[in-house]
Amino acid sequence: MSHDEALSPNRQLTAQEMAVLTSLYRQLATAPSLLALQQILNDQLKALFHFTHCRISRLPLSADAHVPAGEASEHEVLAIALHDESGTWGHLRFYSDREAISPAIPMALPDQVSSVVSLAIANIVSTEKLSRQLEEIKHYQSQLEEQNAYLLEEAKEGFSYDDIIGSSGPMQRVFQLLSQVSFTNSTVLLLGETGTGKELVARAIHNSSARKDRLMVRVNCAAIPAHLIESELFGHEKGSFTGAFERRIGKFELANQATLFLDEIGEMPLDMQAKLLRAIQEREIERIGGKGVIKVDVRIIAATNRNLLEEVQQGRFRSDLFYRLHVFPITLPPLRERTGDISLLAKQFVGRFAKNNGKSISRISSNVMKALLAYPWPGNVRELEHQMERCVLLARDHVIRDVLLPSPTQSGHAPAAGIYTKTHEENEREYIIRVLNQCNGKIYGPGGAAQLLNLKVGTLNSKIKKLGISKEQIILRNH
Ligand SMILES: Nc1ncnc2c1ncn2[C@@H]1O[C@H](COP(=O)(O)OP(=O)(O)OP(=O)(O)O)[C@@H](O)[C@H]1O
């Protein structure tokens, strides 16, 4: 029996059938998806077409199109063509356990159903397209926001070689290596103790390279919890793990055609090292929960204050990753090995902080300079920078006359041979100043320095007088 025999040219729609159609039109207008639409059609049309179930099928159907179990043993009793603006979009197919629709339905009915279902499908398809476009827009928006944050950082910190201060022999060697590698695309491994200027140098390399018009993206491998590193580096798709509410692009993608600075690379967990190696080697990444690989063109600069070779020997760092990164190593010398640079750096920092604080300071006293040269600088240039900032804040006239350097034991480093050791009085003075700073200058009462030092207020006051501690040496936090 052909489908046409299910249609009767003579029969008119009954009042009950008209009512069903009206309710169907109302419901279809709000169907959110094709699945929901199909469900509504199944519920509503049964009364009109007397079938077991119906199914929406979209063109083109391949020859081996899957027919759901159950339907294979049933008869397709009617197929209504559905249209979109470019022609036939698909079909609404009706199945029954009988061979034909009985009783036959009015001839005009399929056309009416076709136009209303086609309209509903057009609505759904365009809403889905719109939400895909919205998703894309959100994706680019988050990408732009991230890039914007980096641009702001870059604008603040657009370091060049001129910002790297140092004329000592070890620094001349560093400059020579930098001039050889900056213009290339080679991976650079920056080694050196904390505060020796690895990040400053990484920025200078990037800013002197052909990639300088794009962002240098920094990842601090030590600051990210182990379970988030993969997502941070490679990104994730929405819903790929608990908490992945939005799609997020990773730092590798963000650094495409630019530079990725992997700071504290020695802290990278072992399992992530394998994934990182693959990304660096293949120059492609896969987002967590993503469906395919994404090609990236990223220059890698890595830095660590660990002895990476020792980490390899201890089994904490993969040797293949080590050799992949160790293409062009540059070791930044500690400040104690280039004392020739201390005076230059100190003057530069004093000049900068004086300007920032609206002070006029013309020189550093020879006593202070002597102390600076004798100190081992375990925190390297960063520590010197901070000390000079403090000196500027405490300066009473146009000369830096005082510097408060921690004793080598306080700073956690054994004193090097020939280094000036402080007297008991100097240590006591520093200690009291530190406590006063901690208490924001408060001497008596709860939380005051006398209580913390377990001293009577009078005793503390006479010590302050005897040790020559002035109130300028105390940095009040609310100032
Ligand atoms: N040669 C230098 N000239 C001028 N400033 C420097 C120099 N080296 C370091 N600095 C300054 O010292 C501070 C610390 O430098 P940076 O953060 O680059 O060190 P780092 O080696 O990356 O430290 P860490 O290992 O702790 O991350 C920064 O403010 C930087 O500008």
UniProtKB/TrEMBL annotation:
Q: Per its UniProt record, what SUPFAM superfamilies does this chain match?
A: Homeodomain-like, P-loop containing nucleoside triphosphate hydrolases
* Record keywords, A-Z: ATP-binding, Nucleotide-binding, Transcription, Transcription regulation
- Gene Ontology molecular-function annotations: ATP binding
Q: Which residues form the Sigma-54 factor interaction domain?
A: 164-393
The record's InterPro entries line, in alphabetical order, gives:
AAA+_ATPase (IPR003593), AAA_lid_NorR (IPR058031), Homeodomain-like_sf (IPR009057), P-loop_NTPase (IPR027417), Sigma_54_int (IPR002078), Sigma_54_int_dom_ATP-bd_1 (IPR025662), Sigma_54_int_dom_CS (IPR025944)
Kindly list the biological process annotations in GO that this record carries.
regulation of DNA-templated transcription
Protein name as annotated: Sigma 54 interacting domain protein
The answer on whether this UniProt entry bears the keyword Transcription regulation reads yes
